[in-house]
């Protein structure tokens, strides 16, 4: 029996898609218009506002990346880099972390990344977007992305967001490994 003829599989695929659609709708229902101005650093010291990151587009994806020290964040960036040209036909995209400009340039060159890279030097934006948490007095970065829309009146609305993590829909290697005889078997991404 082919996969397309398997009614049990088809029903599960439809159910999974329905759950994903409900999740996306719920995340998008949390849209909020930003009430403050954010300025980031591009390169060594060039200030760039959130509104300037849109360029000639009305939509913007900000990838919240934990930086060079996180192998998983590099894995997600590698995957997104592969579809970056397609994303850029519809929206502006930037990768943001707190790494130095030198570190950002080095990893981009090593991995062939084409992202526009910025730094949230003070971390206020990362905090406000919910991608840095505090536990017992220590701050922890969380990977994911936020999506923004520039409205006709110039205001900016965060229209959605989601976290990155093993097994999510944003990194297909986990799903492909699931199908291997022994699954992912403790697989970890490598630095190089």
What do these coordinates show?
By secondary structure, the protein is an alpha+beta fold. The chain has one domain: Glutaredoxin. It is 32% helix and 26% strand. It has an eight-stranded mixed β-sheet. Strands 7-8 form a two-stranded antiparallel sheet. The longest helix is centred in the first third of the chain and has 22 residues. The radius of gyration is 18 Å and the shape is globular.
Q: What number of structural domains do the residues give?
A: 1
The CATH architecture comes to: 3-Layer(aba) Sandwich
The class by helix and strand makeup works out as alpha+beta
Strand order, biggest sheet?
1-10-9-4-5-6-2-3
Radius of gyration: 18 Å
Q: Layout of SSEs?
A:
Elements: H1 7-28, E1 32-33, E2 39-42, E3 46-49, E4 59-64, H2 71-82, H3 84-88, E5 92-97, H4 101-111, E6 116-119, H5 124-128, E7 132-135, E8 138-141, E9 144-150, E10 156-163, H6 173-178
Parallel strand pairs: 4-5, 5-6
Antiparallel strand pairs: 1-10, 2-3, 2-6, 4-9, 7-8, 9-10
Summarize the structure.
With 192 residues, the protein is α+β, with helices and mostly antiparallel strands.
List keywords for this structure.
globular, alpha+beta, 192 residues, Glutaredoxin, 32% helix, eight-stranded mixed sheet
């Amino acid at each position: 029996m082919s996969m397309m003829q398997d009614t049990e599989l088809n029903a599960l695929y439809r159910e999974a898609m329905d759950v994903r659609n409900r999740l996306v709708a719920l995340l998008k229902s949390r849209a909020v218009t930003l009430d403050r101005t954010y300025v980031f650093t591009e390169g060594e010291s060039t200030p760039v506002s959130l509104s300037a990151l849109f360029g000639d587009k009305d939509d913007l994806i900000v990838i919240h990346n934990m930086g060079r020290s996180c192998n998983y964040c590099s894995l997600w960036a590698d995957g997104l880099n592969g579809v970056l040209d397609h994303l850029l036909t519809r929206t502006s995209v930037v990768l943001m972390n707190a790494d130095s400009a030198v570190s950002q340039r080095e990893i981009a060159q090593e991995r062939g990344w084409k992202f526009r890279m910025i730094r949230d030097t003070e971390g206020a934006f990362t905090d406000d977007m919910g991608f840095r948490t505090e536990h017992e007095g220590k701050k922890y970065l969380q990977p994911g992305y936020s999506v923004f829309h520039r409205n006709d009146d110039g205001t900016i609305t965060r229209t959605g967001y989601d976290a990155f993590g093993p097994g999510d829909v944003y990194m297909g290697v986990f799903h492909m490994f699931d199908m291997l005889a022994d699954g992912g078997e403790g697989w970890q991404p490598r630095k190089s």
